[in-house]
Amino acid sequence: MAIEIRATGRAVPKNRVTNDELAKKIDTSDEWIRSHTGIGARHIAGEDQSTSSLALEAAKQALSAAAGKTGIDEDAVKEQAATLDLILIATATADYYGCPSVACLVQHGLGAVNAAAMDISAGCTGFVYGLETASGLLGISDSRKRALVIGAETLTRVANWEDRGTCVLFGDGAGAVLLEKTGETGKRGIVRSVLGADGSGSEALIMRRGGTKNPFKKGETVELPTVIEMDGRAVYNFAVKAVTGAIEFLMDREGLAMDAIKYIIPHQANARIIHAAGKRLHIPEEKLYLNIEEYANTSSASIPIALDELNKAGKLQKGDIILTVGFGGGLTYGGNVIIW
Ligand code: UT7
Predict the structure, then answer these.
(1) Whole-number Å distance between alpha carbons of 63 and 148
(2) Which of 17, 272, 287, 333 is the most buried (most CB within 10 A)?
(3) Residue 100's domain spans which residues?
(4) 8 in the same domain as 152
(5) For ligand 1, mutation pick of 26, 27, 28, 36 (most atoms within 8 Å of CB)
(6) 114 noted as active-site residue
(7) What pLDDT, in 10s, does the model give residues 75-96?
(8) In terms of domains, do 217 and 109 share one?
């Protein structure tokens, strides 16, 4: 048995905002943002878009691709959706507080009447957690065969646009993969994962208002809505250690030499974090996939968006070994070894 990736998809809002455009409204500059993060632009969801609408579009792209279609083919989507047993959505920016989950909204939007649906809350590591969770849920039951795992976010809706230290970092988007349990006996698909957390760092990346601990009260004048607060330095230090540790662990457990790995797809939070980890582990530049310049930090969507880009560009061949590695709010970290 193997849990293989059958197809991928992504959805990114059309509204592309460059650093220079941002600098017209915020006290920042293209030079600062690029030199501190590697970000050149971000895509911002329109008023008619939401985390669930981006997730639905990415899901439809993946299901159409699974049927051999380019773009979205609604007939193919309908047919494929009926075969889904599970929909997992990793997000830190769900449409609604508590319930319904984004996964249930997408389940309905697809007409995936046979699928269980739930969200995963693991910060920017959510998609990595999602791949391992879906693999486990498919593997443990004879009756489950196909799962959609999606990372979807509208972070620009919870960015504090008065805090130049955080708001310039984020973008919106979604990426989806279709997993299928196959009878393959050799090593294929999601072959190993590492998942971890360090809740002692929970305040380093936090949305403090709006939850049950600190709810908005009737009649209260809300100075600040629910926004992301971040201790950038603390997250940076955690991230470099988490990325290097996860890669080393996965390579060690799988007995992998660097030469054997085609791509490492890190969470796209800051190009400097990725380069620092790459330097420590002597990872050749061409193996580290970077697209942060175009999308900024899309949290749990960044890894599946990158996977879809590589896949659609024809850069992944059967048998290629890929590592994903994520880190983020929680604090959480994790990685997957995927044999394409
Ligand atoms: O996916 C979630 C995980 N999040 C992360 O991985 C984020 C990790 N952390 C980081 O990426 C970095 O810490 C940041 C990019 C957030 C910040 O970079 P930094 O090198 O740690 O900058 P800093 O916060 O120490 O700020 C340095 C200076 C300050 O000015 P002074 O006090 O030295 O005069 C800031 O006020 O840069 C200033 N600054 C800015 N200047 C222009 C902060 N933000 C901006 C800005 N434009 N947008």
Answers:
(1) 9
(2) 333
(3) 2-182
(4) yes
(5) 36
(6) no
(7) 999 999 999 999 999 999 999 9
(8) no
